[in-house]
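Re: weekly structure request thread

Next one in the queue (234 aa):
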Amino acid sequence: MTGNWFDSDAGHYVLEREQAWFDATCVDLFGFNAVQIGQCHIDFLRANRMPFRFAASLTDGALRARPEELPLAGQSIDLVALPHQLEFSPNPHQLLREAERVLRPEGRLLLAGFNPLSLWGMKRMVCERSDYPWNGRFMHLARIKDWLSLLGFELLAGRMVCYAPPVNRTAWLHRFRFMEAAGDRWWALGGGVYLLHAVKRVRGMRLIAPRWEENWLARPVLAPPSRRIINGEQ
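Done, posted below.
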């Protein structure tokens, strides 16, 4: 079970780093509606301050629906979080297309995925693939970037985390802590998990500010008409 794995030592190691990134990234993202697709037992948007936040998945969450076919209006969402959904979706490209459909222009997408070009990807190649997360299809980062670009997303930021080997012992994970700093510096693309922050761009569209914002704009002040003095008379 997914939830049980995140309660394990290795799962907690991954979750701690992912949660820190989601918290720092989404805390200053503003809007009205935010949705987290999948992993509904973990609140990856807990630091966000949008008034309406909810989770959606096929089995649990406030909205029960297939992630690839969300019953949401187009351009109605300001923020979409996809924590480890592409590698477990039967149609990952359609899932990204659905995220693009429901996002408004300039809406944000936060994505987490397991990196096949890492020690975690190597373990998936050699271990039994019956349990989470090894039963997923780890997606190459280059492919994800290509899909995002084709869908009109612009990548704003991204990083790798979890450079330590995927051992399920806290003591051993602590011994490999030095690999986090070393990985960022010497093996930047070798983290077990990649984290991406993208924005939906719509060419040729000009966003119009709400009318309540116009009240804050300074209005021009006209000087009163002056009276000219002609032949000593006003």
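The first helix runs from residue 2 to 6. The two ends are 91 Å apart (CA to CA).
Next request, please.
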